[in-house]
Write a structure and sequence with these properties.
Pfam families: DUF433
Region (Disordered): 71-93
Organism: Halopenitus malekzadehii
Largest sheet: 2 strands, antiparallel
Protein name: DUF433 domain-containing protein
Radius of gyration: 16 Å
Helix content: 40-55%
Biased composition (Basic and acidic residues): 78-93
Strand order of the largest sheet: 1-2
């Protein structure tokens, strides 16, 4: 497990993430609060200190407007490009 304490930065696609990693605050929040994973499990799976997981969760809840904006932007991007995806049921042999 990593012993590096990571700051939350906005260098990657202007989305808050753990410094030096591509792991976003949003991803950590989804793992813990939506999938129900224990913060220690998330930390172990991604070679993080558990403090980094809690730091990301704290950031998420301390910046609700920013996180809602990011979520809206992500949903908009999905909707904008949805026509480019193929439903497996539509693929013919």
């Amino acid at each position: 497990m990593s012993q590096v304490t990571r700051r939350i930065v906005r260098e990657l696609h202007d989305e808050p993430h753990l410094e030096g990693r591509r792991i976003t605050v949003q991803f950590i929040k989804e793992q813990v609060e939506e999938r129900g994973l224990d913060p220690r499990t998330v930390a172990d799976r991604h070679d993080l200190d558990v403090a980094d997981v809690y730091r990301a969760l704290t950031y998420y809840h301390d910046h609700p407007e920013e996180m809602r904006t990011i979520e809206r932007q992500q949903q908009s991007a999905i909707e904008k490009h949805d026509h480019l995806t193929t439903d497996p049921d539509d693929v013919r042999d």
